[in-house]
TrEMBL record, chain A:
The chain crosses the membrane at residues 20-44, 84-107, 119-138, 158-174, 211-233, 253-276. This is Carbohydrate ABC transporter permease. It comes from the Bacteria. PANTHER family: ABC TRANSPORTER PERMEASE PROTEIN MG189-RELATED, ABC TRANSPORTER PERMEASE PROTEIN MG189-RELATED-RELATED. Its main location: membrane. Gene3D superfamilies: MetI-like. Residues 84-276 form the ABC transmembrane type-1 domain. It comes from Streptomyces yatensis. InterPro entries: MetI-like (IPR000515), MetI-like_sf (IPR035906). Belongs to the binding-protein-dependent transport system permease family. It is found in: Cell membrane. It is a multi-pass membrane protein.
TrEMBL record, chain B:
SUPFAM superfamilies: MetI-like. This is Carbohydrate ABC transporter membrane protein 1, CUT1 family. It comes from the Bacteria. GO terms for biological process: transmembrane transport. Its main location: membrane.
Length: 291, 318
């Protein structure tokens, strides 16, 4: 793909144009390496320095002696397996709950014509206008004492899972996708004797793989990156996800150990990104220009 | 679109000549069963929205006018929460900091990604590399980004001052100085979040028809003139969208001040959301927290409404 951009191909082909191009290119590569890759390098190697070396000025670019004890200490002392497991449980549950309930609701709103469907959809879309963080306090109070049944979900992964379902953006994304599935396809299935659930499972879901992928990634990343909400609902240290645990433990732990824990906490999402980068980047680029 | 217009084939099959037309009562029951089934599918989502979106939104407004501590029965206090919160010296600091943060984020976190996207769009090599690398910080958990930069800003062994020394520039207090703390936090937020913005700008730049640049060049427009008269007008809509999104996002900033500065030094980085958190969990004053939440909600709700309106009208144009 080579469409015309700001600078014309002819200008680039001239010797002077080519010199400027390669200068700019090199500058951008260096800038990107310094700004985005170097901090990551600094973190990964910083954890392998000795505690004295990491605190010395001027800092060393490469560890004098490579220690892996930063990583093993972080794993053991900070109970990282426990906190990583908590995060995995919270993220996986939020993903599953969102997929099941948002898909079902979007399918109903798109294809089953419930009475007051438009009102319900309006109510759901209206929540897009409410900034999420402005509601954390009343949401916390609701979770701490659920109306009617009067139970508390604090320190329970359900406190992450259930509110995650109330995601108007994902639900709307799914509904919009389902709207595009022709009615004839669903009616053909109906004539063949498929019930609503069977139609959803065997016809709609297989056709919706792209949008389900996007929703899945959004759901996972959102839980993994969240901080304020889990900070509020998990006061029990043993239940905290890695983001909250890192901050709570950062006060009284050796710097190299903390840095190692930071690296470990970053690995899952960075790995997910590197594996699915094509899809993630395409999703961000496509979703935005269309609004 | 009416319901009947959308489904002629089904209707045609239902009144197939061989079949007797279903009795009216049967149809009504069928419709009722259809409704029940539709609501069965809706139920889970509906309950979650009711509990965790609609109810808290109403409750925020109600509690804002109550004296509320969990466990004891609430007591109506009129506008006392609002007046108390308004007279808190931290209130002014929090709003001033939040607005300054948003403004700085617009200046720093807005110009840089646009320029970066503009340059990246001209590069013909290693495009995939640039896209992946610029988005990498977005995938690092915000808490890790904050802790990482807290370490960079460290007055002793911090990398930030080391870089300044290397360039023979005077060192700074960064997040530890009352006058530099807020800017330091904006730098962290920009670094951590600009990947998405750059990618969106890149997509927008790629959709500009090349003929426009060609025509401008034939008319003798210089590089800067082409940016001003072609690129910016052509991406104006995306620029406006991202600006609104950024205002909405940065006004809810919490993680960076909480992790890096703890609101200090001298309240220089207390933000509105941080203050809400403090009222609820430090002072146990949920009435005050909700009064603050309602203020934030009204202000940001207006921006969100504007954003939604614009994206919807933009969709119609497309």
């Amino acid at each position: 793909m080579s469409t015309r951009t700001l600078v014309s191909p002819a200008a680039l082909a001239r010797p002077r144009g080519r010199a400027v191009y390669w200068t700019v290119f090199t500058a951008v590569v260096v800038l990107f390496a310094v700004a985005f890759l170097f901090p990551v390098y600094w973190m990964v190697t910083g954890a392998m320095k000795s505690p004295d070396e990491v605190a010395q000025t001027p800092p060393t670019l490469v560890p004098k002696h490579w220690h892996s004890s930063g990583y093993t200490d972080a794993w053991d002392l900070m109970q990282l397996p426990q906190h990583l497991w908590n995060t995995v449980v919270q993220a996986a549950g939020a993903w599953l709950f969102q997929l099941v309930f948002c898909t079902a609701a979007a399918y109903a709103l798109s294809k089953l014509k419930p009475a007051f469907g438009k009102v319900i959809l309006g109510g759901i879309l209206a929540t897009l206008m409410v900034p999420a963080q402005a509601l954390v306090v009343p949401k916390y109070l609701t979770v701490a004492d659920l109306p009617l049944i009067h139970t508390s979900l604090l320190n329970d992964p359900l406190a992450i899972w259930l509110p995650a379902v109330a995601n108007a953006f994902n639900l709307y994304l799914l509904k919009r996708f389902f709207d595009q599935i022709p009615r004839d396809v669903l009616e053909a299935a109906e004539i063949d004797g498929a019930g609503r659930l069977r139609t959803l499972w065997s016809i709609v879901l297989p056709m919706s793989r792209p949008v389900l992928g996007v929703v899945s990634i959004f759901a996972l990343v959102a839980v993994w990156q969240d901080f304020l909400w889990p900070l509020m609902v998990f006061s029990d240290t043993g239940k905290q996800p890695i983001s909250v645990a890192l901050v709570q433990l950062s006060q009284n732990i050796q710097l190299t150990v903390l840095i190692a824990a930071m690296v470990i906490a970053s690995i899952p999402m960075v790995a997910l990104f590197l594996v699915f980068q094509r899809h993630i980047i395409a999703g961000i680029s496509a979703g935005s220009t269309k609004g | 679109m009416t319901k009947t217009a959308a489904r002629p084939p089904a209707e045609a099959i239902a009144v197939h000549p061989v079949q007797a037309p279903p009795p009216a009562g049967g149809r009504g029951r069928r419709r009722l069963a259809d409704q029940a089934r539709a609501y069965g599918f809706l139920l889970g989502g509906l309950v979650c929205f009711a509990l965790f979106s609609w109810y808290p939104a109403i409750r925020a407004v109600v509690i804002a006018f109550q004296k509320y501590t969990p466990g004891s029965s609430p007591e109506w206090v009129g506008t006392a929460n609002f007046t108390r919160v308004l007279h808190d010296p931290e209130f002014t600091a929090a709003w001033r900091n939040t607005l300054t943060f948003t403004l700085l984020a617009l200046v720093i976190g807005f110009a840089i990604p646009f320029l970066l996207a503009l340059v990246l769009n001209e590069l013909r090599h290693a495009k995939a590399f640039f896209r992946v690398v610029v988005y990498l910080p977005v995938m690092i958990p915000p808490v890790v980004s904050a802790l990482l930069w807290k370490w960079f800003y460290d007055p002793g062994a911090g990398l930030a001052n080391e870089a300044l020394r290397f360039a023979h520039l005077p060192t700074s207090n960064w997040s530890n100085g009352a006058d530099t703390a807020l800017v330091s936090l904006v730098i962290v937020a920009t670094w951590a979040n600009m990947g998405g913005t750059v990618l969106i700008y890149l997509a927008a730049l790629q959709s500009i028809p090349g003929e426009l640049y060609e025509a401008a060049e034939l008319d003798g427009a210089s590089l800067l003139q082409r940016v001003r008269h072609v690129t910016i007008p052509q991406t104006r809509f995306v620029i406006l969208m991202l600006m609104l999104l950024q205002i909405i996002a940065t006004m809810q900033v919490f993680t960076e001040p909480f992790v890096i500065t703890g609101g200090g030094p001298e309240n220089a980085t207390v933000t509105v959301l941080y203050l809400i958190y403090k009222y609820a969990f430090l002072y146990n004053d949920f009435g005050g927290a909700c009064a603050l939440s309602v203020m934030l909600l009204v202000l940001l709700g207006a921006f969100s409404a504007l954003y939604l309106r614009l994206t919807r009208s933009g969709e119609d144009d497309a």
